[in-house]
Fold this sequence. Notes:
By secondary structure, the protein is of the alpha/beta class. The chain has 12 helices and 6 strands. Strands 1-6-5-2-4-3 form a 6-stranded mixed beta sheet, with helices on both faces. The longest helix has 25 residues, at 43-67. The chain is globular, with a radius of gyration of 21 Å.
Amino acid sequence: MEKQDFLERARTFARPFRIEDGKDFHLKNFDPGDTLHLDQEDKPRAQEALSMGVQMLAHFQDLLYAQDRYALLLIFQAMDAAGKDGTIKHVMSGVNPQGCQVTSFKAPSSVDLDHDFLWRSNNALPERGRIGIFNRSYYEETLVVRVHPEMLARQTLPAERITRSIWDERFQDIRNYETYLNNNGIIVRKFFLNVSRKEQRKRFLARLDRPEKNWKFSANDIKERAFWDDYMDAYNETIRHTASRHAPWYVVPADNKWFTRIAVAAAIIETLDSLHLRYPEVSPEARAQLDAARAILEKE
C-alpha cells in the first residue's frame, strides 16, 4: 500500500471518533463495540495494517526527533481494564525508546498535593522532538476527584476556593493550559478508551481466572465499578468542556482490543503527518564540510 493511500485509510479509522467541539457531545452516542463495520474475518488484515502503521509511526518519530521543533503529548484515560497499557505497548512498539517517554500517574503523593493539580503533569511534559505518553493525567482531577469529591479535602485548598463552580473552573484551567501547550509547539491528543461495563466485567473475570493476571486485579477495581454511572457522567462532562480543535479527544471503542489499537495508531499517524515534518536541511557551509570529510575518508 502506498504511503498516501495508507494515510487516507488512517483518516477513515480516526476521524469518526475525533471530538473537536464538545457542545453537542453525548457519550451515549458512541458504541464501545464499534469496529466501523469490520468483523472477525477482517481482523488479520487489520493487524497487518497495524504493523504498517507501527512502521510509519517509527518513521514519523525519527522526523520529529530530527526536526526538534514540536513535541507530541498523548493522553490516555479510561476505566479499569479498558486496555490502556496494551494499547500503548502495541502501538508504540516500533518507536525508538530514546525519543519516547511514558509517565503513569498514580494516586498523588503528599508532595503532589502541596502543589496545584497541574504541577506533576507539567513536570513530565515531553521535550521538543519527543513523544510523551501520559497513562492517566491531570484529567483525573475532573474524573476521579469529581466522582469522589472528598479527595478535594486532601489538596488543602483554601476553603473559599472550593465552590459550586470549581469544576467549571477546572475545565477552564485545562482549556487554557492546553492552549498554552499548543502555542509552545506541544501537540496534545487525548484518548478515552471507551469500554462497556459488560466487557469490563468479562476482563475482570479473566484476570481472576488466570494466575499470571491476578496481580493486575485489585479489590479497589470492584469498588470503583460501583460508581460506573458517575464516571460516565464525569467523562461526558470532561470531554464536552475540554474538546478543542488544537487538543481534540478521541472516543475510541475499546471492547475489541485489535480495533482500539488500529484507531489509536491511525489518530497518531494522522497527527504527525499534519505537522509536515522534514529532516533539517544542511546549510551550504555544512555541506562543504561534509564534502571535505568525504574526500578525506575516500583517500584512506
